[in-house]
Structure formats: C-alpha cells, structure tokens
Amino acid sequence: MSFVSRIYDFNHNADLVSKGYDDFLEASFQIEEALEGFDLDQLVRTYDLDATSEAKCISRALVETCVTELSDVDRVDKACDAIVFAIGSMTKLGLDPNQIKRAMNIVMDANEAKLGCPKDKFGKLTKPANFPNPEPRLQKLLDERI
Questions:
Q1: Confidence grade of residue 27 (pLDDT, cut at 50, 70, 90)
Q2: Residue 56 CB contacts under 8 Å (≥ 6 apart), including other chains
Q3: Can you give the pTM of this predicted structure?
Q4: Which of left, alpha, beta for 106 (phi over 0: left; psi -120 to 50: alpha)?
Q5: Is residue 83 packed enough to be buried (19+ CB in 10 Å), middle (13-18) or exposed (0-12)?
Q6: Binning pLDDT at 50, 70 and 90, where does residue 51 land?
Q7: Which percentage of the chain shows pLDDT scores above 70?
C-alpha cells in the first residue's frame, strides 16, 4: 500500500474526515509542525503570545488572530504545496525517492499506533503511553545516506 493510501485510510480510521475541512485546524496543524526546531519560549516572549510554549498552543494562538476561510481550490493548492515542500525538504536532506517512501511509512507506523486513542479538544489524536517514537528508525534511515 502506498503511503498516500495509508495517510488517506488513517484519516478515515481516526475519524478525522467526518467533520470536514476546518481552515483553523488545518492551518494550526501545519504551523505546529513548522514550529519544530524553534525556541518556543523566545517566540512567546517576542510576540507576547498568550499561550504556553507548546507548538500546538502557539500555532493555535497565531491562527486565531489571522486565519481566513479559503476556497476548496485554494485549500487543495495549499495542501499540494505542503507536500511539494515536504518532499523537497527530504530531497535536500539527501534522501532518494525510495528513502522518502520508507520515511513516510515509518511516520505512518507511528501515526497508526495512535488509532483508538483519545483526542484533544481540537480533535487531534493523543499519543499512547507506549508510543513507538519514529525518530530512532528515521535516524537509522538517515544514516544510510551516501
């Protein structure tokens, strides 16, 4: 099964599709991921955000103040661009197409481990106590680069 099919199935199995597209949530989830690697305490101080220094809280605080509703065409374009940038980033990290597919499957293994877990108030699945962190497997994959 392709990683695209796995992501599609995951969204349905986690009941993330039934509520439809929400500009606020989609933007905040993407910003949350983009904030990985940022000094979040510094971001909170610099922008005087009324949020804890967790990426999900900061992303939601940012989106609450400025999100606008998009057309479905703009939403699809935004999602496609996110995939293009993500695959481009992995290419720049030295991964070939096969390694990118493997990386995506490693992350999907971890995501699928969250199926059946409770959701937070925004509908995002929480991690189980025995969450299979994907980082060690991703590091092993990165170590294979030439």
A1: confident
A2: 28, 32, 120, 122, 124
A3: 0.74
A4: alpha
A5: exposed
A6: low
A7: 95
Q: What span, in angstroms and rounded, lies between the C-alpha atoms of 8 and 74?
A: 20
- 8 Å CB contact between 94 and 145: yes
The amino acid at residue 113 is: A
**What are the tokens at 12?**
């349905």
pLDDT in tens, 53-69: 778 788 877 777 766 78
- Token pair 């877990």: residue: 117
Q: Give the Cα separation of 11 and 26 in Å (integer).
A: 13
* Backbone φ, ψ for residue 36 (5° rounding): -60, 130
Q: Which two tokens stand for residue 67?
A: 């999100």
Cβ proximity of 126 and 114 under 8 Å: yes
- DSSP-based helix, strand, coil % in the chain, nearest 5: 60, 0, 40
* Residue 123 phi, psi (nearest 5): 90, 10
